[in-house]
Amino acid sequence: MLHNAARRPGREPKNGADSASVGSGSVREGTTRSRWFTWVLAGCTLAVLVAAAPGALRDALDRGGIYLFSWEFFQDLPRRLTGPGRFRFVFQPLVAMLLGVRAGRDDARAGRPPYLLAVIGHPQHRRQMLAETARALANIVLLGILLDAVSQWLILGVAHPGAALVVGPVLIGLPYALARAFSNRVTRLGRR
């Protein structure tokens, strides 16, 4: 409401608020919407995984073991590359790499070490970098898990929550980490 009032000509924000505080309200609204979307996506992902659990348990009893730890898991990977949802094997890593490049350039400008080196060898940077990663990748990881569970159901006839919890994040986490570290190095070399 205050944001709209500030945009109309001849109207001043109420309570002595300046334009900077009005603009920060819209940033807070965007953050709130983003958090809301993350919670909705997390709820949908959790609902799909919970709904898939009985079928996966029945399949595990019939198979005599858990799908994720079986040879069939590796045999089914090529089927996923050609079945419904195959575009996500390109799109999700690409988005993760773009986010990683942006974060790596920011790391280089801030003088932080490359991502993998900082997470493994610099405890003073570890918490900050892992928190940034969680914020940057939360929605895309949730979406990856959700899409993997749905594509398993479409291709295999049953969704395996364990496999979705592994394949989805690997498609995103590995390209992100490598792109963030590599872009940090390239940015540092370009500044010399």
Strand-helix topology:
Elements: H1 2-7, H2 19-63, H3 71-82, H4 88-110, H5 115-121, H6 123-156, H7 161-191
Describe this structure in words.
The chain is mostly helical and 192 residues long. It has one domain (2-191). It is 82% helix and 0% strand. Mean pLDDT is 80; it is low at 1-24.
Write a compact overview of the structure shown.
The chain is 82% helix and 0% strand.
Q: How far apart are the termini?
A: 49 Å
> SSE string, helix = H, strand = E?
HHHHHHH
Rg over CA atoms, rounded to whole Å, is 22 Å
Secondary-structure content class: mainly alpha
**Oligomeric status of the shown chains?**
single chain
Helical fraction: over 70%
Q: Supply the number of helical segments.
A: 7
The tally of beta strands, per DSSP, is 0
- Shape estimate: elongated
Q: Give the biggest sheet.
A: none
How many structural domains are formed by the residues? 1
Spans of at least 5 consecutive residues whose pLDDT stays below 50 are: 1-24
Mean pLDDT, rounded to whole units? 80
Report the portion of residues in β strands. under 5%
Throw out a few tags for this protein.
192 residues, mainly alpha, 7 helices, disordered N terminus
